[in-house]
Design brief:
The chain has 2 helices and no strands. The protein is rod-shaped. By secondary structure, it is mainly alpha-helical. It has a domain of 104 residues.
Length: 149
C-alpha cells in the first residue's frame, strides 16, 4: 500500500495561492491594457483636433479645451504608470507563488517515484517467491519420480 505524500495539504494550499496570484496578475495586466488604450485614444484625439477659430472667444475656448485634454492625458498617463507598477508587483507575486509550488511539486513527484519503486520491489519479491516455490515443487516432484523408478 502506498503512503500519501505528507505535504499534500501544503501543496494544495500553494496551488491555490498560485492560482490566486495568477488571477491577480491577469487582472493587473487587463487594467494596464485598458488604461494604455484609453491614454492612446485621448492622445490621438488631442493630436487630431484641427479647429480654426473664427473669433477670439472661440480661440480661447479651443485653448481651454486643449489644456483640459492635456491635463486628462497627463492623468491617464499617471494611471497607466501606476497600473504598470501594480502589474509588475503582481508578476513578482506570481513568480514567488510559482516557485513555492514548483519546489513542492518536485518533492511530490519524487515521492510518487519512490512509492512506485517500492511497489515494484514488493511485487518482484512476491514473484520471486512464487517462482522459487514452483521450482522447489517441480524439483521435489521430479525427485520423487526418479526415486519411484
Amino acid at each position: 500500500m502506498t503512503r500519501n505524500f505528507a505535504l499534500g495539504g501544503l501543496l494544495r494550499l500553494r496551488r491555490l495561492e498560485q492560482d490566486e496570484a495568477a488571477g491577480g496578475l491577469a487582472a493587473a495586466n487587463a487594467g494596464t491594457r485598458e488604461s494604455a488604450a484609453r491614454e492612446a485614444a485621448a492622445r490621438s484625439l488631442l493630436s487630431e483636433t484641427t479647429a480654426t477659430p473664427g473669433s477670439l472667444g472661440a480661440m480661447h475656448g479651443i485653448a481651454a479645451a486643449r489644456a483640459s485634454s492635456r491635463s486628462m492625458v497627463a492623468e491617464l498617463s499617471a494611471v497607466t504608470a501606476e497600473r504598470r507598477r501594480r502589474a509588475e508587483e503582481a508578476q513578482e507575486e506570481y513568480s514567488a507563488a510559482r516557485k513555492n509550488t514548483l519546489s513542492l511539486e518536485k518533492l511530490a513527484f519524487r515521492h510518487s517515484e519512490t512509492e512506485a519503486q517500492l511497489e515494484l520491489q514488493a511485487e518482484q519479491i512476491v514473484l520471486d517467491e512464487l517462482a522459487g516455490t514452483a521450482w522447489q515443487r517441480a524439483a521435489t516432484q521430479h525427485g520423487a519420480e526418479e526415486h519411484a523408478r
